[in-house]
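Second opinion, please. Please look over this fold, written as tokens:

===
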Amino acid sequence: MLLKRWKLFKDGLSDKNLNNASVRCLFFLLERENSKTGALFPSHDRLSKDTGLSARSVRRGIDRLIKYNYVIKLKKGGPGRATSYQINYEQRTILSQTEDKIVKNIRTKMTDQSTYNLLNKSKLNNIIKRVSKNTNSGYKAVVENKKKSFNSVEMVAQRILQKTNDPIMQEAYLKLANSSNFDDKARAEYYARNLGCLSD
């Protein structure tokens, strides 16, 4: 379930049809979905508090998610009753399977020799990376606790804020990264990688 959620969120981040409000709504809808039953019925007020957006922006964000098949509206809400939604993993899974099939076909067309060359090149690159890392003054400063690591939670959070200019998204990352729950930490890492703020 966790992998499905973050694959869908990754799609949303890279989808030009979704605006900032839609992506924020998608993040918190995925957070609030019951992982066992799939139940999802947050009010617009609740999502407004989660995302830091106005109720109107939340409505528009959700409408866009519905339009582009990320979310399905199951039952319209009424006075004192929130609308019921469902995350639309099925279509995204079909798209993902199609992409995997294309990649598999490309790989089968590669010759054994080219694969061998790629592996050797990869090994050489790893050796070069290790040597330059160990002789790098910045790396030594991190080892000697004189400087924060590039991939430390604080540094990643700073890069997320610089990239998105959105303190809400930075806070969401920090909350997950500093959680004692392993799944939350995994989500934080996946989220940061997809934004390009965490290096290997």
Notes: Strands lie at 71-75, 84-87. The first helix runs from residue 2 to 14.
